[in-house]
Amino acid sequence: MPSGPDFDRLRRLRAVTAEFRDYQGLNLVPPGLLLMSLGLLHGRGVEPLFAAIPVAAATALSVRWYYRRRFGVVEALAGRPRIPAHLLLLALLCLGALFAAALVPPGPVGTGGLVFAAAIALCAYPHWRLRVHHLVVGAVLAAASLLPLGLWTPTGEHPLGFTSMVVLTVVGGAAVCVAGLFDHRVLVRTLPAVGPVGGS
């Protein structure tokens, strides 16, 4: 009869397999790096940005190829269509940014950082325990956003506010990458590699 640790491993295996696409955390790295490049290349013209977009797209395709090669094809359970976590995160970021930028005036609190924090944390649903790293990343980012750093800036605005897009995109993009890397870590520690599809 399976022992306690064996049951935990089986539950973990079932949870990760059922939400396989959500744990393909490397899918979060290309959009995260693209966000960082928007900040780092700010003020250098549009040419570097035009180069960054195809690089991010090529990286995303390489990630998809890597997961297919390592884990094979995993079909979703019937009757459980669900938006992949990386797409949900991008949608939440866009919606949150639009509402916050329109409704919240600039100030000493980092509204933009709070939007990133909330979006990253919400992507842990429904497996809060396995994806606790999303909550940790979100909490760290929220704490940094709530510090009244705007009181010590010349403009009086927080570095993680929407008026300071350079800092916000770099820090937010880095947070997205970190959350994705930890998702990937959960996946590779849970599921065995199958090798190339149709493999040798």
**Order of helix and strand elements from N to C terminus:** HHHHHHH
Question: Could you tell me the number of beta strands?
Answer: 0
Major sheet: size, sense and barrel closure? Answer: none
User: What is the SS-derived class?
Assistant: mainly alpha
Stretches with pLDDT under 50, minimum 5 residues: none
User: Rg, please?
Assistant: 19 Å
Give the strand content: under 5%
| Count of separate DSSP helical elements | 7
State the helical fraction.
Answer: 55-70%
Overall morphology: globular
Overall mean pLDDT score? 81
Taking the alpha carbons of the first and last residues, their distance comes to 34 Å
Short description:
With 200 residues, the chain is mostly helical. The chain has seven helices and no strands.
Mind explaining what this structure looks like?
- The protein is mainly α.
- It contains seven helices and no strands.
Record the SSE blueprint.
Blueprint: H1 4-18, H2 29-40, H3 47-71, H4 85-103, H5 111-122, H6 132-146, H7 165-190
Question: Key features?
Answer:
200 residues; mainly alpha; 7 helices; globular
